[in-house]
Design a protein that fits this description.
Mean pLDDT is 94; it is low at 1-22. This protein has 15 helices and 49 strands. The chain has 918 residues and is an alpha+beta fold. The radius of gyration is 29 Å and the shape is globular. The protein folds into 5 domains: 2-132, Immunoglobulin-like (Sandwich), CATH 2.60.40; 138-342, Jelly Rolls (Sandwich); 347-459, Jelly Rolls, CATH 2.60.120.260; 465-810, Glycosyltransferase (Alpha/alpha barrel); 823-917, Maltose phosphorylase, domain 3 (Sandwich). Helix 7 packs antiparallel against helix 8 (634-656) and helix 10 (694-702) runs antiparallel to helix 11. Helices cover 21% and strands 30% of the residues. This is alpha-L-rhamnosidase. Residues 811-885 form the Alpha-L-rhamnosidase C-terminal domain. Keywords: Hydrolase, Signal. Residues 1-22 form the signal peptide.
Length: 918
């Protein structure tokens, strides 16, 4: 019997090893390990495997799967599952299947594929996935030494405006046998570029992703088999400063963390065709120089490049490096070595300038037409020594010159010195700018827009969402949000890309990360960020406002550190990632207990630091409101938010298997807080909380703290404030706006949400767009308030706007009971005021689409539900006769349905549907 099963398995594998068209147009696609496409060098011994089912027919449900894994592609294709054969598993799960085969070894390869059975009776597969294991044991790095140059060079400076030249390192090696495979394992801090035989390895930029280098260091892995040859080869690297050699070195040491001079550790692991192996490591046989063309690289201030100092051929064999220094052994950074499980940044897009104009002082202002993040590529001809200066800014003053006050002390300037050898093309290597406008001076001829190309740089993650509606203002806001979000992905989510800050503030993403997940595949980015937060936690449980803690801001408030919990909840809800909750639960609980023990007084949370940050002020010239009627009590905010987080912790405890022990603790603490909260802040005569700001009433209502019989009365006060007092405009800051749009819709006023979303007068998102914004501002009045607080590329004020776009307007929502979009809840607010919406989102199960259009008499709605999922769909009619499904009357369509109040509720299997309601 066993022999027969193996024979059948071999036949199946043989059949599916070729990408033949599957029957019924159904395929298994997007095989992924840990949600990464073919990752190199992971450090997880039991990685999670996932796949999607792509189908061109309706009602496709997985009934079983089989995972086959082998150590070589040859073994897999020949049916030899020498690592793991799961056998047939009766299950509809296609996400996060834990590898359960043989123990995976250091540097080992895994090739795998999935066989899937569906209700259509097919056995399907497509493609083969691959991942490799990194260096799992710290001991394997022991004989690999960290090398560098721990000194300044002529032209360098250690100051508030530090300058430090790049380090160039090289080593020639001799590989005496035929090469079967080769991989480089590299930690290059703060940033690196890797070369082999004159060729840059990989398309990554600004690598690796930043961490607190005293806690953990990420190494990157590259398969370099095709770049090496038998005989002489050359390994070369360039090291830039990044976050390691801190830009403001020795400036405010009580606030800003510094780590030291750039350094690296590298292993080249070579396997020969005869089965022998070799490891080339960093040691004192490497040569180093700081006399290369990158004479300064500073994230805040820019990059200076002197092309006359180029080291021609430095990264090829037989280069004369006799004047180079011997690389020094240097102290290791201190953090634990980890494989980088997130993608590096890369150049994702290009932007052509829209105009260039000469100023009265003879310089030129280049307009990119879009506030973007990255750098400029320059194309120029001139004489040796000609120096081009490019200064970057987000906006212009009235006289057409750059507006730079909001950059604070960031100099944001690149310099390029020509070598004078025909056409020269250059772009920086180790910096980025946030900008729309560039002042160009020193250009040897009259420049045109064709001399420049903008390079858009952010993490190499997929854009997953689209949105378009009948409202032009909402469409522009969506576009602005898209550009702002991707510009602020820099190996971690940062607050802004242009001024002397660029920090991973937790409070900016508390709810924002959730909205972003509809637009971008941000799962691994935020899973990494949770690790950063955990690593920044103090021994007694405190969590900082910025993580990694490049700034030492341990403010012990609730709303910023609480992001640790809300982002984990987002990853579970949107991606079905339960592992992050299991991994971080104990640290989250530690913080919850820490806050209770230190700041809970009479069952209320007394510590708040930021309030409802950036409430729209009463005057366009103010940053913060001075009118007390606009500000919300900090104790109310902290207590309500802490209560909200306790509800999430109850859910986490159940998921983590800690429910019996911890849920009673969270429940009792919640009830005490709720009782004290209502006793102190609720006014039973007016049915308002505290001073009746929208945020004061909104938080307890959104969090379920308001007694059920009083909810409608509290909501009436919110409506009165929004609709009458503030004339249909935003009056909330960072905290209140996280729950504003959804709560208005939830309690029956989607039209009021729409009014807020479509406004173009102050204060509103549309006001930003109307006044020329192409990203999202830090302030509602970002064009008029104090210049030093005016980042024009922030995302913190988006609140729950994007969630509302998708869940409430498009009707694309993951059922909380079935995370990861296993079941959709599709319930658009058709009566909000829009006439059509077209939206899509690439979920972990596949592409979801929702496109509806209405007029006075009819509603037409086209939806796409991914294979192996279902959807609960709400239509605004209780009449069976008024509804058709794919041009068939509802009662003849075979679709399950029921009436719920004034809605018809359909339960649809996967597929493509056109729904019509008369």
């Amino acid at each position: 019997m066993k022999k027969f099963f193996l024979q059948i398995t071999f036949i199946l594998i043989t059949l599916i090893s070729f990408p033949a068209k599957a029957q019924n147009n159904i395929d298994v696609i997007n095989l992924q390990c840990e949600m990464l496409d073919n990752p190199e060098g992971i450090d997880v011994l039991q990685p999670r495997l996932s796949w999607q089912i792509a189908a061109e027919v309706n009602d496709v449900q997985q009934t079983a799967y089989q995972i086959i894994a082998a150590s070589t592609l040859e073994n897999l294709n020949s049916g030899k599952a020498d690592l793991w054969d799961s056998r047939k598993v009766e299950s509809d799960e296609s996400l996060n299947i834990m590898y359960n085969g043989k123990k995976l070894n250091d540097r080992g390869n895994v090739f795998w594929k999935a066989i899937v059975w569906t209700n259509k009776g097919e056995i399907l597969s497509k493609d083969i996935a691959h991942f490799s294991i990194g260096i799992l044991n710290y001991a394997d790095w022991k004989s690999t030494r960290w090398i560098g140059y721990e000194k300044t060079s002529p032209g360098d400076s250690i100051s508030q405006y530090s300058r430090l030249s790049a380090r160039y390192l090289r080593k020639e090696i001799n590989l005496k046998k035929q090469i079967k495979s080769a991989k480089v394992y590299l930690m290059g801090l703060g940033m690196y570029e890797l070369y082999i035989n004159g060729t840059k390895i990989g398309n990554q930029v600004l690598a690796p992703v930043p961490t607190d280098y005293t806690k953990n260091i990420k190494y990157n892995v590259f398969d370099v088999t095709s770049q090496l040859k038998e005989g002489k080869n050359m390994l070369g690297t360039i090291l830039g400063n990044g976050r390691f050699f801190t830009m403001r070195q020795d400036y405010k040491p009580y606030k800003i963390k510094t780590f030291g001079y750039p350094k690296m550790a590298l292993q080249l692991f070579v396997e020969y065709t005869d089965g022998t192996k070799d490891i080339i490591r960093t040691d004192d046989s490497w040569k180093i120089t700081t006399n290369g063309p990158i004479v300064s690289n500073n994230e805040y201030d820019g990059e200076d490049y002197d092309a006359r100092r180029e080291l021609k051929g430095w990264n090829t064999i037989d280069y004369n490096d006799k004047n180079w220094l011997t690389a020094e052994y240097v102290q290791e950074p201190g953090g634990f070595y980890e494989a980088q499980m997130t993608p590096n940044m890369k150049i994702i897009d290009e932007v052509k300038p829209v105009s260039i104009k000469q100023t009265p002082k003879g310089t030129y202002i280049l307009d990119m037409g879009q506030n973007m993040v990255g750098w400029l590529q320059l194309k120029v001809k001139g004489k040796s020594g000609d120096t081009i200066k490019m200064k970057f800014a987000e906006s212009l003053q009235a006289d057409g010159s750059l507006y730079i006050e909001n950059l604070r002390d960031a100099r944001t300037t690149d310099h390029y010195i020509l070598k004078g050898e025909g056409e020269e093309i250059w772009e920086p290597t180790f910096i980025f700018h946030g900008f729309r406008f560039v002042e160009v001076s020193g250009f040897p001829t009259k420049p045109t827009v064709d001399n420049f190309v903008g390079k858009v740089v952010y993490d190499d993650i997929k854009t997953t969402g689209t949105f378009e509606s009948s409202d032009a203002t909402m469409n522009q806001i969506f576009k602005n949000a898209y550009w702002g979000i991707r510009g602020n992905y820099k190996g971690m989510p940062i607050d802004c890309p242009q001024r002397n800050e660029r920090q991973p503030w937790l409070g900016d993403r508390t709810t924002g990360a959730y909205g972003e997940s509809f637009l971008f595949d941000n799962q691994t980015l935020y899973a990494k960020w949770l690790d950063d937060i955990k690593n920044a936690q103090t021994a007694d449980g405190g969590i900082p406002d910025v993580a990694p803690a490049f700034w030492r801001y341990y403010g012990d408030n609730v709303t910023w550190p609480g992001t640790y919990i809300t982002v984990a909840d987002m990853l579970y809800q949107q991606f079905g990632d339960k592992k992050v909750i299991e991994k971080h639960y104990s640290s989250m609980k530690k913080w919850v207990v820490y806050m209770e023990q230190n700041y809970l007084v009479k069952d209320l949370m007394t510590k708040d630091k930021y309030g409802d940050w950036c409430v729209p002020p009463e005057s366009l010239e103010l940053i913060h409101a001075k009118d007390s009627a606009r500000t919300t009590n900090g104790e109310l905010i902290a207590s309500a938010f802490y209560y909200h987080l306790l509800q999430k912790m109850k859910k986490f405890a159940a998921l983590n298997g800690s429910g019996n022990e911890d849920i009673p603790y969270y429940e009792a603490l919640s009830q005490r807080i709720k009782l004290a909260f209502n006793a102190k802040f609720f006014n039973s005569k007016t049915n308002t909380y505290a001073n009746n700001t929208v945020t004061a009433n909104l938080l307890p209502l959104a969090f379920g703290m308001v007694p059920e019989n009083l909810q409608s009365k509290v909501f009436e006060n919110i409506v009165q404030e929004v609709e009458v007092t503030y004339k249909g405009h935003i009056s909330t800051g960072v905290i209140g706006t996280q729950f504003l749009m959804r709560t208005l819709s939830q309690f029956g006023r989607p039209d009021l949400s729409y009014k807020l979303a479509s406004n173009n007068t102050y204060p509103s998102w549309g006001y930003m767009a109307k006044n020329g914004a192409t990203t999202i501002w830090e302030l509602w009045n970002g064009n008029t308030a104090d210049p030093k607080m005016n980042s024009q590329n922030h995302v913190m004020l988006l609140g729950d706007l994007l969630i509302w776009y998708y869940e409430n307007i498009a009707g694309i929502r993951s059922n909380p009971e079935t995370p990861g979009f296993k079941q959709l809840i599709m319930k658009p607010d058709f009566n909000c005021g829009l006439t059509y919406v077209n939206a899509s989102c690439e979920s972990v199960h596949g592409l979801i689409k929702s496109s509806w259009k209405k007029n006075k008499n009819t509603l037409q709605w086209s939806i796409t539900i991914p294979a192996n999922t279902t959807a609960v769909v709400y239509l605004p009619s209780a009449a069976v006769s008024a509804i058709t499904v794919n041009n068939r009357k509802l009662d003849k369509s075979g679709v399950a349905y029921k009436t719920e109040k004034t809605n018809m509720v359909l339960t649809l299997p996967s597929g493509f549907y056109t729904l019509n309601v008369k």
